[in-house]
From TrEMBL, chains A, B:
Family to which this protein belongs: Belongs to the THEM4/THEM5 thioesterase family.
Record SUPFAM superfamilies: Thioesterase/thiol ester dehydrase-isomerase (SSF54637)
Gene name of this polypeptide: THEM5
PANTHER family tied to this protein: ACYL-COENZYME A THIOESTERASE THEM5
Catalytic activity: (9Z)-octadecenoyl-CoA + H2O = (9Z)-octadecenoate + CoA + H(+); hexadecanoyl-CoA + H2O = hexadecanoate + CoA + H(+); (5Z,8Z,11Z,14Z)-eicosatetraenoyl-CoA + H2O = (5Z,8Z,11Z,14Z)-eicosatetraenoate + CoA + H(+); tetradecanoyl-CoA + H2O = tetradecanoate + CoA + H(+)
Organism: Ictidomys tridecemlineatus (Thirteen-lined ground squirrel)
Subcellular localization: Mitochondrion
Class of the enzyme per the UniProt entry, highest EC level: hydrolase
Keyword flag Mitochondrion: yes
Gene Ontology CC terms, in alphabetical order: mitochondrial matrix
Domain Thioesterase stretches: 148-220
InterPro entries: HotDog_dom_sf, Thioestr_dom
Name of protein: palmitoyl-CoA hydrolase
Length: 243, 243
């Protein structure tokens, strides 16, 4: 498998991570190779996107449905490790974004709470050919906003994370440029919200995506959103990393 | 102090929390009375919006600056309890949104991580007359997205929460209808982001707000956003609660 690195231009001293992109650059990694690097066959890392006792029956049964689809219908179940630092073992991010390793307990935001059922419970399935994702999301009582319901910000973060992983795997999109959410109904804590994400187009080094979050029976729409992500130029690993 | 309840129309059976508003209704509670109910002089509840050893020097010194402004310049430091269930002891939310009390450990999403410095560190100052807020936000390592930087979703949630408290206190806005964020730069974990929120207008029972998140020296803009919140009609407590 061809390994690649990222060409980045980051002014970390100014806390400025704006990339300088070459408009003529081509984006090289195929979705298949990105997915295979993202989903290691063997790893010692804990995958948090597996069923546990806190999952509600709706979440469990829909998980099983999609798991069946991974066998024949082209869907891929994405693993979810504690930190993006774990994911980049298979992915590689721009070197300017990899902070010096230390002993801190780093966690990706959507896995910040590790007590089963209390925070984020979710699993993302991705379809490389259709360039779409489905995220099964069950908010716990630590994600509360109005009493008994998920905080709007917790859904916003779940959408951003699902967009993010989809954008990277579908087209090397790495950074959120825009997130626009229209909230319709509140999600009761402990229930299932199904997020359907679709890549609408890839243009001018940007990925445009849409998302609808709704109940499993599709009778209740919780929110609709759109996201724009910036593609990141890939180069051969033999090229020098530019900072 | 006049106490009030909310008139709501919620179809919880369908998980639908769309309020049926009376277009002619007036919104009665003054900002002063809302603020005084929100900020109890004496309480046994822990206020998480107080300095701790994890706060960076920038956050500490700006906190002290705003604390001085609370004495003479009309700013109010908002307390931040573990759950909105604690805040509603002074506020009251629509009864349809108050889930039956149980022994769960409920937490407002932005206080979901209680280990100092690991998750959300923030404090919100509100100016009732100017209808604006300033949120001092320091993301910890559990809020990570790209290695070493805050997850975009964690900033989205912080903006939503600051909008939410501002909207309620400035004009009885309770529910996010729309959140639109344009991301500019990443926030390094452990550093300070200053969120300036302004109520732009109140029209047709909606509050329109803007936010800019930037470094303390204003040289780096992290993100700009707008939020629209729905006002909730208040009625005298003697009126029947309508569900």
């Amino acid at each position: 498998m061809m390994r690649r690195s990222f060409q980045v231009a980051a002014r970390l001293g100014h806390r400025c991570i704006l990339p300088r992109l070459d408009p003529a650059a081509a984006f090289g990694s195929s979705t298949d190779s990105l997915v295979s690097r993202f989903c290691p066959v063997k790893t010692d890392l804990k995958d948090y996107a597996l069923p546990n006792a806190s999952w509600c029956p709706d979440m469990l049964s829909l998980y099983q449905e999609f798991l069946e689809k991974t066998k024949s219908d082209g869907w891929v179940k994405l693993p979810s490790f504690q930190s993006n630092r774990d994911h980049i073992q298979g992915l590689k991010l721009p070197s300017g974004l990899v902070a010096a390793s230390d002993k801190s307990d780093w966690r990706i935001f959507t896995r910040c709470i590790q007590v089963e059922g209390q925070g984020y419970e979710y699993v993302i399935f991705f379809h490389p050919f259709k360039k779409k994702s489905v995220c099964l999301f069950q908010p716990g009582p630590y994600l509360e906003g109005p009493p008994g319901f998920a905080h709007g910000g917790s859904l916003a973060a779940m959408m951003d994370e699902t967009f993010s992983k989809t954008a990277y795997l579908a087209g090397e999109g790495l950074f959120t440029l825009n997130l626009n959410i229209r909230f319709k109904n509140l999600i009761p804590v402990g229930s299932l919200a199904v997020l359907n994400v679709q890549v609408e187009k890839i243009e001018d080094q940007k990925l445009y995506m849409s998302c609808i979050a709704q109940s499993r029976d599709q009778e209740t729409v919780y929110a609709k959103s759109s996201g724009v992500f910036l593609q990141w130029q890939l180069e051969e690993e033999s090229s020098p990393w530019s900072l």
